[in-house]
Amino acid sequence: MTDAARDVVLTTRATLVRNLDGMRFPPCLPGRPDDDEARRTQERVEEAFLRANLRGEYARLPLDCLKAWEISALAERGLVDRRLAQRGVEGRAALVRRDQRLCACVNDGDHLRMHAVWPGLAPEAAYRAVSGLDAALGETLDYAFDGEYGYLTADPAEAGTGLRVRVRMHLPALLRGGQTPLARPLCEELRVGLSRVRDGDMVELTNVAGMGMSEAEILETVTTAAHRIVARERQAREAMLLSDKESLEQALAEALREAATAQTLRFEHFQTCWSTLRLSVVAGILPHTLDAMDALYLSAQPGHLGLRAGAFLEDDSRQTALAELLRATLDETDETYKTLNL
């Protein structure tokens, strides 16, 4: 098994949550334009970036000034939380590293939420990156910490280490075959949870507790659970291809025909086509790359469609854009991934 397990795992995201000692948590703030406390929090975090000599590596995005689809695009890349678009606290900002793998969000439910997003199965690499940022900022910032409860957070479930690791996995063979990726007793034993992503063939694996476990233990349990799911999905794919490869080839032919002729696509239909295309790439039937397939899925999200169009797309326009995007991707022979300049 390769370390990255890219045939099954799209991305790994590690998040560290911190709050500043002696200041009210963002959910307690009134969220008014004259909210000085929220602005002071932002100023203190930005000062910490300057003192750590990191400011030049990061772009500052004042989230209060961004369009809803621009914030959605950041969330779709895992750089901010999706709930951020609905928050009304003055002084929200994101500091995004130029390679778009690291981000620090200010006043997003907590004073500071730091995210690292890595391709493939990479809990250790993602954690090292976000932990390095945490340590650099911690040289200047005084974090709210309790000797018994650990790092204090707005959500008690995140207290302790403040670490949450999420692994996004593509499991078409298991899910279409009606199989459970990981048995409930094992999930409870490892203290991990699984959730379906938009009712498609993807799931997100995450640790469900940060208190009572060390960072090393969290990384170990998530990695163990991910490896078991990867092994089960690979076994299911192998069995499917041995017994019924023709069905996949037929599904691929239908997906390609749909891509060539459809003028509009609902996202649910696009998601099914995309899952078949990605599985066909892994099986060696379709001559594209996993990078191209993963970039296609990202580009099909509402925020990214809005970025391409420069405006929020209503349902009809979005379905037209999805059909055009799918057709254009399959017409290309090179990798389609481009880092979007947000």
UniProtKB/TrEMBL annotation:
Residues of the Phosphagen kinase C-terminal domain? 8-236
Return the Pfam families for the record.
Answer: ATP-gua_Ptrans
Keywords assigned by UniProt?
ATP-binding, Coiled coil, Kinase, Nucleotide-binding, Transferase
**Coiled-coil ranges per UniProt:** 238-265
Q: Where does ATP bind?
A: 11-15, 113, 164-168, 195-200
Per the record, the similarity remark reads:
Belongs to the ATP:guanido phosphotransferase family.
Q: Under which name does UniProt file this protein?
A: Phosphagen kinase C-terminal domain-containing protein
Organism of derivation: Candidatus Avichristensenella intestinipullorum
